[in-house]
Amino acid sequence: SPAGLQNDHKALMKQVEEALHQLHAREKEKHAKDEAEALAEALSQSQSLPQAFARVNAVTPGSPASVSGLQVDDEIVEFGSVNVNNFQSLQNIAMVVQHSEGRPLSVTVIRGGKKVHVGLTPKRWAGKGLLGCNIVPLQR
Description:
44% of the residues lie in helices and 23% in strands. It contains three helices and six strands, in the order H-E-H-E-E-H-E-E-E. A hairpin with a 2-residue loop joins strand 2 (75-79) and strand 3. The radius of gyration is 29 Å and the shape is rod-shaped.
């Protein structure tokens, strides 16, 4: 009878619908997994970056810092012998700078998520200080 056919059709549609739901649920799970993996990878990459303790927030054109290639927003992870483990205040950096006048200092910064090495030679120049950049401690 036509009624019986209609019921079969309804049952069939219900099965199709359920199958679709399951498919979507699986896709969703897979998508969530992909996102989780992408996040984990991003985290592991940032994990491999050393901890910065200060940030450059100004560089005067023509200064030793500028000539060395230091840029605003560079995050400093090593400044000569100073790193995140022994950094207490900007006084630490000032001391290193004074002791290294005329000698290249090895400075490591994080720029755009990558480690960049900069050779910085503190020296007298037209402006004030020996570097010509302004460094601010990062809030922990």
